[in-house]
Amino acid sequence: MTVQEQLRALVHKHHANFIDQIACVDRLLSDRDAQGFAPPASIVEAQGITHQMKGTAGSMGFAHLSTAAAELDTSLKQLKAVAGPVAADRMQEATQLLAALHDISSETTPEMSTLYNADLSQLAK
Fold first, then answer.
1. How far apart are CA 71 and CA 98, in angstroms?
2. Where are the beta strands (DSSP E) in 26-86?
3. Contact by Cβ (8 Å): 42, 86
4. N or C: fewer beta carbons within 10 Å in the chain?
5. Interval 73-121: pLDDT, tens
6. What's the half-sphere exposure (Cβ side, CA atoms, 13 Å) at 18?
7. Are the CB atoms for 65 and 105 separated by under 8 Å?
């Protein structure tokens, strides 16, 4: 397998992982108690995932995914600062940003990565 083929396989792997991570964040942000409050632990875990996505998406050549993950990450950091469970009305921005991230990911393919067809000989110089 050539280096380019290995890189493409890595791009495919990360793209599939982004889809799984978004689904996980969705589950975490949907987690509510009987009064409709989101538990702090769910927000902390979701923010950790979006932070990782932000960096990995950027490194793997998915700038739009990275930007959308960064916006959600910022929103979740603000929610993390709330002491205790978070009311549903305070979750609206994060929910909207998650929907936008989901939309971007569903319109993105591995082939859209800037690394997918990168001329590796030029990168080595």
1. 9
2. none
3. no
4. C
5. 999 999 999 878 999 899 999 999 999 999 999 999 999 999 998 877 6
6. 34
7. yes
CA separation for the pair 58, 84 (Å, rounded): 32
**Shortest CA distance to 2 belongs to which of 118, 83, 125, 81?**
118
Domains and CATH numbers, the chain: 3-123 (1.20.120.160)
Reduce the secondary structure of 53-115 to three states and give it as a string.
HHHHHHHCCCHHHHHHHHHHHHHHHHHHCCCCCECHHHHHHHHHHHHHHHHHHHCCCHHHCCC
Cβ pair 16, 10 in contact under 8 A: no
3-state secondary structure of 99: helix
Q: How far apart are CA 71 and CA 97, in angstroms?
A: 7
Q: Match 């002491």 to its residue by tokens.
A: 83
Judged by phi (left if over 0) then psi (alpha if -120 to 50, else beta), residue 84 lies in: left
